[in-house]
Automatic annotation (TrEMBL):
EC number: 2.1.1.-
Residues annotated as catalytic: 100 (tele-amp-histidine intermediate)
Motif residue range(s): Histidine triad motif: 98-102
HIT domain location: 5-113
Name the record gives this protein: HIT family protein
Gene3D superfamilies: HIT-like
Organism (species): Halovenus rubra
GO MF term list: methyltransferase activity
Length: 142
């Protein structure tokens, strides 16, 4: 994609602080980190959303995220915990429309959180939602 900043990085046409790359994935430091060591893991092939990303490539992103998490925990960068964050779509907070997994080292004092209202569903409502999702899941090949 011509206008995609991440595709420009993959092509070598934009700078990055590279952490890792292989044939299918790339990991780099993010420009606007929430904590020291905040890394983005991206597929080299452009996919604007998870629905346009192959399952194998998605698995590779997660696998690389796990390896990076292990490296962070073994380093001097504070990482008492690790969050993975992937926003899929504008309503989910996606700002760059090239799939990317945030690997976010955490400390007990960083004040980062996922907050919002919580639903109070009863068991029949949860069972109904589970059936709706299962029906579509059975139609999807993994």
């Amino acid at each position: 994609m011509v206008d995609c900043e991440f595709c420009k990085i993959v092509a070598g046409d934009a700078p990055s602080s590279l952490v890792y790359q292989d044939d299918r994935t790339l990991a780099m430091m993010t420009l606007r980190p929430m904590t020291r060591g905040h890394i983005l893991v991206i597929p080299k092939e452009h996919a604007d959303s998870l629905s346009n990303l192959g399952y194998n490539t998605g698995g590779e992103l997660f696998k690389l995220g796990m390896k990076i998490s292990e490296s962070l925990r073994a380093s001097e960068i504070e990482s008492k915990g690790i969050n993975f964050w992937l926003a899929d779509g504008g309503a989910a907070g996606q700002e760059v429309f090239h799939v990317h997994l945030h690997v976010l080292p955490r400390s007990e004092t960083d004040k980062i959180g996922l907050e919002g209202p919580r639903l109070d569903l009863d068991r029949p409502e949860m069972d109904s939602d589970a059936e709706i999702i299962k029906e579509r899941l059975n139609d999807t090949e993994c």
